[in-house]
C-alpha cells in the first residue's frame, strides 16, 4: 500500500519560516482533511509535498512508499503516484482539455496510448463524473467558471489515477451546486487505490466527503487531530476555541 509520510517537516519561502514541524501519514484508502485559518501554512504544505520551486525544506523528510521525495522535481513525484489539485487552476490557451489530459497521462504513466485508446479511458471517467463532451474539447480553463475549472481538475485526477491526491481548497469560490458536484466526484474516487488529503477552510465540503481523520493546522503546525466530530466543533465554535484550548490565543490568521 502506498503511504505518504511527512516527518518533522520544516520549510520556508523567501527566508520566512512557514512550516514548523509537520508530522502526517496518508495512505491509500484513507481520507484526511486539514483545516485551519488563513496563513496557517496549509497550501504551503501542499506545495512543498509536490516539490514546487521556491520552497526550501530546512528540516525533516517527505517519503512515499518509503522513498524520500526531497530531491525529486514535481514531475517525478507525479510519476511516483502523487497528485495536486491546485487552488487556482491556470488557463492554457490553444490547448484542448483532451490533448492536455492525454499529454499528462503519457508523461505520468510513461507509456503511449493511441488517441482512440486514451479517449476510451477518458470517456469512462467522464461518464462517472458527469463531464460533458463539449467541455473536454474547449481550451484548458479558458472561459471556464470556477465550478468547471474544479471539475476538470477532478477529471484529471480520475484520468491519471494517482495513489495519493492532495486537494488544495477545492471548495474555494464554488457556489452550492458546484461544490456538491465537485465534492461528490471526489468522494466516489476515494477507494482502495486512492488516498486523499483535503485542504480546506470550511466544514461545508465535508458534508459530501467524510474524512477518516481531521487535522487542525495553525502557525505552521498541526495542533489537533480527530474524527469528523472535530469539523463540526470548528463549524460551531470557530478556530478561537482551539486557540484557547491549546493556549494559542496569539496565533495569527
Description of the molecule:
Helices cover 38% and strands 29% of the residues. It has 253 residues and is of the alpha/beta class. It has one domain: Rossmann fold. Helix 3 packs parallel to helix 6, helix 4 crosses helix 6 (146-160) and helix 6 (146-160) packs parallel to helix 7 (176-189). The chain starts with a strand and ends in a 7-residue tail after the last helix. The mean pLDDT is 90.
Defining traits:
Rossmann fold, four-stranded antiparallel β-sheet, alpha/beta, six-stranded mixed β-sheet, 29% strand, 253 residues
Shape: globular
And the CATH topology?
Rossmann fold
Number of helices: 9
Structural class: alpha/beta
How many domains, as an integer? 1
Considering the protein shown, what is the CATH homologous superfamily? P-loop containing nucleotide triphosphate hydrolases
The average pLDDT is 90
Q: Compute the gyration radius: what is it?
A: 18 Å
The fraction of residues assigned to DSSP E strands is 25-35%
Query: Which residue ranges are poorly predicted, with pLDDT under 50 across at least 5 consecutive positions?
Result: none
The end-to-end span amounts to 36 Å
Q: Count of DSSP E strands?
A: 12
